[in-house]
Amino acid sequence: MTLYSHSRIESFFQCPLKFKFQYIEKIKVPFHQSIEAFMGSRVHETFEYLYKLVQHTKIPLQQELIDFYKKKWKQNWNNNIVIVKQGLTKENYFNLGIKCIKNYYQKNHPFNDGLTIGIEKRILIDLDGTGKYKVQGFIDRLVEKKPGFFEIHDYKTVSNLPDQIKAEEDRQLALYAIGLEQEFNEVNEVELIWHFVVFGKTAKSKRTKQQLTELKKETISRIKEIESCNKFNSNPSILCNWCKFQCICPEFKHQKETENLPANKYLNEAGVVLANKFIELKNKETEIKTELSLVKEAVIAFAKEKNYSVIKGSNGKLSITQTKSLKLPKKDSKEYEKLELLLQKINALNETSSLDQTKIKEFLKKKENKQIEKLLEENEMTTVRVGKK
Fold it and tell me: pLDDT tens digits for 168-198?
């Protein structure tokens, strides 16, 4: 029986191949932590330190928290931490972490919003009541406002501020609410609270019993989809910039193998040569298609002006043919609705496959119907064919 987490489930739907590398094959690659994750961890450690002091009735000064953050940053920093965003430095992120701490401190001091009964509290969620489908998680901070009334707090150091809709759609904290109801005897209300500490803002949400029931069903369905998967495709996105499996991912493997080659070797590398040649030919193809389209228009105009159906050249000839056909009116148009009603009226809708253009043409060949023809649009097409001289 696999014990899932919200992040493990989300990983599959972000990129099935990454999920396979990490959770099925458990491939070990050189660890390169992103600067965003590093800074976020240091801020979380600082808030954990803060509320452990509060639990012991001590309210620390803001500078004490900043000093703690600085110490943890220095202790944990290493040269394998990756900065993806161009133009930003280690100092930018370090200062952003201090800003997060100041924002939170100023908004929440003196930290008396309720009784903190859990910090980084592990929660286990039984989704089906039998233990077959289980999810675990860790609550940043669990608060009891009064008996039976709880708050789940989550700290976010992201640099974008989500709207309320995102909070209402969030699965992670809602799953934790289910776990609370299973762990505590009396749970009257659970409020979900996200602290977006970069901005000094919060978002709040509550879920109904029905919503939580639906979430359990949905999560089981997502787990079943994961467990029935036999083809783990890559799903390229902006998240690839932070993925630790780039060195073995088919999307990035060649890039990683060649990015440190000197210029003379890089330009002669087999893959680079093939890619450059293909791109060169593809660009020429696009140019030729554009030019061919313009020449074709000129040929048609010339043939029409001179009343020619064949134009001879020194290496061959061009045959210009005009054909007319009827095509269906656009969907959602009045003519489309009228056509559908007319076909129903004459019991021909099944025979024409619910307004299938080819079937309607076949129908009209067998049974001439002027009313139908009037509702069809006339389409004129000119073709230019190349023939031998």
Answer: 999 999 999 999 999 998 899 999 999 999 9
pLDDT in tens, 11-67: 999 999 999 999 999 999 887 899 999 999 999 999 999 999 999 999 999 999 999
pTM across the whole model = 0.74
Query: Where do the domains of the chain lie, and which CATH numbers do they carry?
Result: 3-228 (3.90.320), 309-387 (no CATH)
Please state the three-class secondary structure of 268-330 as a single string.
Answer: CCHHHHHHHHHHHHHHHHHHHHHHHHHHHHHHHHHHHHHCCCEEECCCCEEEEEEEEEEECCC
